[in-house]
Design a protein that fits this description.
With 260 residues, the chain is an alpha/beta fold. The protein is 32% helix and 24% strand. The chain has a 7-stranded mixed sheet with strand order 1-2-3-4-5-6-7, with helices on one face. The chain has a 6-stranded mixed sheet with strand order 8-9-10-11-14-15. The protein has a two-stranded antiparallel ribbon with strand order 12-13. Strand 3 and strand 4 form a beta hairpin. Helix 4 crosses helix 9 and helix 5 packs antiparallel against helix 6. The structure holds fe (ii) ion. The site of fe (ii) ion has 4 residues, from loops.
Length: 260
Amino acid sequence: MAACIDTQYPVLVIPAMQDNLIYLLIGTDSCCAVIDPGTAEPVLETAEQKKLTLTHVLLTHGHADHTGGVSLLKKKTGCSVLGSDLRQSSEIDIVVQDNQLIDMCGFRIDVIATPGHTCSSVCYYLKPDGRSAGAVFTGDTLFICGCGRLFECTANQMFHSIERLAALPDSTRLFPGHDYTMDNMRFALTVEPGNMAIRRQMEVLNKEGSLAAIPSSMGFEKQTNPFLRTQSPDIRRHVNLPDAPGEQVFAELRRRKDRF
Ligand SMILES: [Fe+2]
């Protein structure tokens, strides 16, 4: 079984396959939802070990490394599958849309449409309540210190999707779909070498392992993630676009990261 990490939030992290991150969101009455199960076995094992009942699957997009476990989970548990695009997974029972509110396991979850990585990508946002900060599950849209590749959409679309996420409160916990943190931080330093918050975090992660970065927070991402920092004079200087619109700086950063 993959190591399961307790984030001290009602979320368990299940690292799976090469660098995917599957999340179990634990709600009332031991009910839980899984986000982006690329594979079923570690999800079933973790649910059994923690005595949780899986009732829902949430899909951020349809790529196989995020959906590969859906059929088996549905067969074994009878859970409901929510996703944004029936063309990407025939297992979806409930098609979700931008700004839709979903009630499950005692949580109210907002759907945020974030076209960019794919045209139908969505993120799932839990608003803060009296007990906990908010949380957002970002799939392959926003990573720690990075963002997803543009497979179907333009850089402009991704830029505006990420701006929507950046408007969430700084305390919002960020749960991305992959552990690309170290590679992303190495890239970030090529365009903003003076960013000490990145350097300090890399020192910590070199000792503790990259999974210690999960969850990040939107506030920390605003200090460190170059794709959220297109107004940084240092970044603009490094990409030779001192006066360009943010969208253009974003597109150049994405091009450079593709070649990194
Ligand atoms: Fe993907």
